[in-house]
TrEMBL record:
Database matches in InterPro entries: FN3_dom, Fn3_PTPRU, FN3_sf, Ig-like_fold, R-tyr_protein_phosphatases
Main location: membrane
Protein localization: Membrane
Domain Fibronectin type-III, chain residue ranges per copy: 1-98
Taxonomic classification: Eukaryota, Metazoa, Chordata, Craniata, Vertebrata
Protein name (record): Fibronectin type-III domain-containing protein
Membrane topology: Single-pass type I membrane protein
Keywords assigned by UniProt, alphabetized: Disulfide bond, Glycoprotein, Membrane, Repeat, Signal, Transmembrane, Transmembrane helix
Cellular component GO terms, alphabetical: membrane
Transmembrane segments: 257-278, 341-361
Length: 374
């Protein structure tokens, strides 16, 4: 026993019972719907019965609902009555959604150099809810024949714009819309440079012509049905428009510009770093040279002070009765500069001490008169 399903009918076949308990006089088949993918289909209604002759082994049940499971009961009858029934469940195939008739209705709303706006109208589900709406863009070629769409030759394989460029596909999916996004007729712009459910809707190239297709898809378990219709055609521009780059080339150009800019920025940063290092090195060298000159000048100053002190000692030895101002005040006029190591702090202290020694070294009080020498 078994059944072959179609969208709106089921072919049911059976075999004669192994133990008929007499000569079979007829077969009786009753059936009813028990569930459906389409919520609009009524289920669990009263059963219907079909009687077949004793030599029949099959029957076609027409006018059924798509996407609906039917339960069949088959039993044989003899002069002694009906024997036990055998149950079989068979589910009809789902149907493609029904799209509105666009013949005589202008779906075109607006057009620019890189876009075309069309009117989308919701489809009618048959046997299963609408799973998705899809907008397909097909590039026109002069030598390609006009394509007529039907339920059998719609665009079953989704192709993104990037894959279409790399694989040479004549079409790409510009958008996929959930059924909830189209509860009623709404406008849609092909080429608005946005992404819908992972499908990029790039600007159209003005010098190319396009066919715009609208399709609805229903999918349950392992079965998918699609219906599509062409809703608009965009002709290629006859005049050369303003420079509008191809989306793919524009993307490559942006990547190249970004790479060049990054390289220039890195070069500038490295150059600034080298300049800073060189300047710092020169500044350190200048400081080192200045420190050496300062130490040399201080050394000459100390030597001069030593010579001056020696002259003073000689003068005092010639006139032992002379008393200097520093002697009378217990000052030692000789300052010590024996430290061989000079740092920035020691140099400053040494300079102040030298000024102090020089100032008091030139003050003399001569014995025997009141002359003060400066």
């Amino acid at each position: 026993h078994g059944g072959t399903p179609f969208e709106d009918k089921i072919f049911l076949n059976w075999k004669e019972p192994m133990d008929p308990n007499g000569i079979i006089t007829q077969y009786e088949v009753s059936y009813t719907s028990i569930r459906s993918f389409d919520p609009a289909v009524p289920v669990a209604g009263p059963p219907q019965t079909v009687s077949k002759l004793w030599n029949s082994t099959h029957h076609v049940f027409p006018y059924l609902h798509p996407g609906t499971t039917y339960q069949f009961y088959i039993r044989a009858s003899t002069v002694k009555g009906f024997g036990p029934a055998i149950a079989i469940n068979v589910t009809t195939n789902i149907s493609a959604p029904t799209l509105p008739d666009y013949e005589g209705i202008d779906a075109f709303l607006n057009e620019t150099a890189t876009t075309i706006t069309v009117l989308l109208r919701p489809a009618q589900a048959k046997g299963a809810p609408i799973s998705a709406y899809q907008i397909v863009v097909e590039e026109l070629h002069p030598h390609r024949t006009k394509r007529e769409t039907s339920a059998m030759d719609c665009y079953q394989i989704p192709v993104t714009y990037q894959n279409a460029l790399s694989n040479g596909s004549p079409y790409y999916f510009a958008a996929e819309l959930p059924p909830g996004n189209l509860p009623e007729a709404a406008a849609f712009t092909v080429g608005d440079n946005r992404t819908y459910q992972g499908f990029w809707n790039p600007p159209l190239v003005p010098r190319k012509g396009y066919n715009i297709y609208f399709q609805a898809m229903s999918s349950v378990e392992k079965e998918t049905k699609t219906q599509c219709v062409r809703i608009a055609t965009k002709a290629a521009a006859t005049e050369e428009p303003e420079v509008i780059p191809d989306p793919a080339k524009q993307t490559d150009r942006v990547v190249k510009i970004a790479g060049i800019s990054a390289g220039i920025l890195v070069f500038i940063l490295i150059l600034l770093l080298v300049i800073l290092i060189v300047k710092k090195s020169k500044l350190a060298k200048k400081r080192k040279d200045a420190m050496g000159n300062t130490r040399q000048e201080m050394t000459h100053m100390v030597n001069a002070m030593d010579r001056s002190y020696a002259d003073q000692s000689t003068l005092h030895a010639e006139d032992p009765l002379s008393v200097t101002f520093m002697d009378s005040h217990n000052f030692n006029p000789r300052c010590k500069y024996d430290s061989p190591i000079f740092t920035e702090v020691s140099i400053l202290l040494l300079f102040l001490s030298a000024v102090h020694c020089i100032w008091y070294h030139k003050i003399y009080f001569m014995q025997g008169n009141d002359i003060v020498r400066f």
